[in-house]
Amino acid sequence: MLVGEIMDIGVRNLAYSEAEMIWAINEEGLPGTGKVSQQEIKALLEFSSLSIGAYLEDRLVGFVICLPPNTEYGSLNYAWFNQRYDKFLYVDRIAVSVESQNQNIGSILYEHVKKQAEEMGVLVAAEVNIYPPNPGSMRFHDRHGFEQVGVLDHDEKSVALFVYNSNEGK
């Protein structure tokens, strides 16, 4: 692809059959994405209320998996939001393949998430690693209008907890 060439990124729902490719992209994003097995990816897809992929020429290059409140998902970060908010769309993970990073694919995916949350009248909830640090994700969430609402420390990890409210002031 030439510099300045516009990519034709398609966005559509993820298919259960794509779990292996989703897992592979997730692995490229470690430690920021959080380590999971292929089976756990399949479980996340079952829990999700929004799971979409970004496709370049029908090749998956990025994805986001979001959960509604009150599923049986065992994440401590997810539980933190469940204890404090009744309605939200929880971004469990967003990842872009290494070869496709820095091409606004993450932003394209987040715009879809934010639009869905606005239509549902809910917050978008997410977390970013403080330790191990993930400064790129911190900048990304700041650029997308997220507000930090807490910090959660567990084991050898610390996360900043964020919400985005598209309905604020409406």
The N- and C-terminal alpha carbons lie at a distance of 42 Å
Into which percent range does the helicity of residues fall? 25-40%
CATH architecture: 3-Layer(aba) Sandwich
Largest sheet data: 7 strands, mixed
CATH fold naming: Aminopeptidase
Low-confidence stretches: 1-5
The shape is: globular
- Structural class from helices and strands? alpha+beta
Instruction: Determine Rg (CA atoms, Å).
Output: 15 Å
The number of distinct β-strands equals: 7
**What's the SSE pattern?**
EHHEEHEHEHEE
CATH class: Alpha Beta
CATH superfamily: Gcn5-related N-acetyltransferase (GNAT)
User: β content, as a range?
Assistant: 25-35%
Q: Kindly report the spatial arrangement of strands forming the biggest sheet.
A: 1-2-3-4-5-7-6
Total of DSSP H or I helical runs spanning 4+ residues: 5
How many domain units? 1
Q: How confident is the prediction overall: mean pLDDT?
A: 91
